[in-house]
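Checklist before submission:
- one chain only
- standard amino acids only
- sequence pasted in full

Submission:
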Amino acid sequence: MTCWSSLAKCSGRRLPSSTSRAAFSLIEAMVAMTIVTFAASVLLLGVEASLGTSTEAVDRAIADGIARQVIEEIVSKRYVQPGNSPETLALGPGGSEENDEDRRNYNDTDDFHGYETDGLFDTWGIALGRGNEAGGLRYSTFRLRSSYFTNWRMNIRVSMVNPTNPSLNLTGSNTSRVRAAEVTISYENSDGSIIPLAKRRRVFAYLPPPA
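Returned file contents:
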């Protein structure tokens, strides 16, 4: 018997359909969604880490610039108070020079020793980025927000150093006519931990005034 109408019917076998795998099954779709979600999470974590690293890099650059500026402020002052020995052991501000964040009365290098602040301030004791360097405030458009440097810290140390090896600070009653100024800028987290941002050190020596 010849069957012309349908080869499948004649053979008794079912031919595979070309459209039977045209769509994903539910399980395959769920697996695909899981993979995409995981990949997106990894990508977002990478972006977050990158942003955090970039922010820290900016903070370190700002801190280094501030430390450099304060070092220049220190060495621009005279080495020692007139009439005092350049080898005096008494380092630090005295009398009217002691005024919290205000540094405008500092007139020699040792006055900066022991200067510590919570927050950063200019010479006049005004929050950094808000003053006009003359004791007043900038125009409001050009001021940093008042809380910008709230968690930043500054620490200044001035010490006598070994003239032949300036990396060594002198201790006890040892004196010299060479000093080092060191400025440290750091950031305090909400949990109280401290992150060092920048440290600058400058060595300078006493030069007698011309006769």
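Reviewer check: Strands lie at 116-118, 152-162, 165-169, 178-188, 194-205.
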